[in-house]
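wait is this the right file?? whatever heres the structure
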C-alpha cells in the first residue's frame, strides 16, 4: 500500500514525481491552485496545455512540470458542486482515479494532490476529502507497488485538519 502523507503548504514546492492541478475544462489556467501552478511552472505550461484541447470533468491529462520541482503536472478537472445529486462524487472520484492511472502509465511513483473542487467549485471540504482518500486507497490497493507515496497537499489549516482526522 502506498504511503499517504498529509502536507500543509504550497503544492508547487513539492518535489514529487508529479503534482496534480485542480484545473478547469479549458486547461488554460485560472485562480487558486490552478493559477499558482501555472505561475510557478512558467509560460511553457500554458503552451503545453493549449495543445491538449481542454479536458472533460472527471478526466485528466499530463504535461511536463517545466520550472516546477515536480517532473510532471497532471491536470484533473473536478466537478462544480451543485447540491450533491448531479454525480459530483462520481466525477470527483474519476478525477482522482484518472490522475492515478496516468501516473502509473508514466511510471510516476510519488504524486501530490490538491483539494480538488473545494475552492471556487464549492465542493464541501470533508465530503471531498472522504472521496479523495477512498478513491486513492482503493486504487493503490488494486495496483500494489505502482504508486509509492501520495501527498494530500492542503493549503489551509481547515483542509489539513480534515485530512489528518480522516486518515487516523
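ok assuming it is, sequence goes like this
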Amino acid at each position: 500500500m502506498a504511503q499517504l502523507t498529509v502536507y500543509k503548504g504550497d503544492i508547487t514546492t513539492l518535489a514529487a514525481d508529479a503534482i496534480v492541478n485542480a484545473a478547469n475544462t479549458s486547461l488554460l489556467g485560472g485562480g487558486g491552485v490552478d493559477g499558482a501552478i501555472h505561475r510557478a511552472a512558467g509560460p511553457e505550461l500554458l503552451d503545453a496545455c493549449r495543445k491538449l484541447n481542454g479536458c472533460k470533468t472527471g478526466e485528466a491529462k499530463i504535461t511536463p512540470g517545466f520550472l516546477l520541482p515536480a517532473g510532471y503536472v497532471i491536470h484533473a478537472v473536478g466537478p462544480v458542486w451543485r447540491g450533491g445529486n448531479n454525480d459530483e462524487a462520481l466525477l470527483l472520484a474519476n478525477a482522482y482515479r484518472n490522475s492515478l492511472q496516468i501516473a502509473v502509465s508514466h511510471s510516476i511513483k510519488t504524486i501530490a494532490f490538491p483539494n480538488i473542487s473545494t475552492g471556487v467549485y464549492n465542493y464541501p471540504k470533508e465530503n471531498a476529502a472522504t472521496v479523495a482518500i477512498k478513491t486513492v486507497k482503493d486504487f493503490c490497493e488494486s495496483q500494489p507497488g505502482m504508486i509509492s507515496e501520495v501527498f494530500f497537499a492542503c493549503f489551509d489549516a481547515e483542509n489539513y485538519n480534515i485530512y489528518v482526522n480522516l486518515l487516523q
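Residues 3-166 form a domain with the Leucine Aminopeptidase, subunit E; domain 1 fold (CATH 3.40.220.10). so i think its the right one actually
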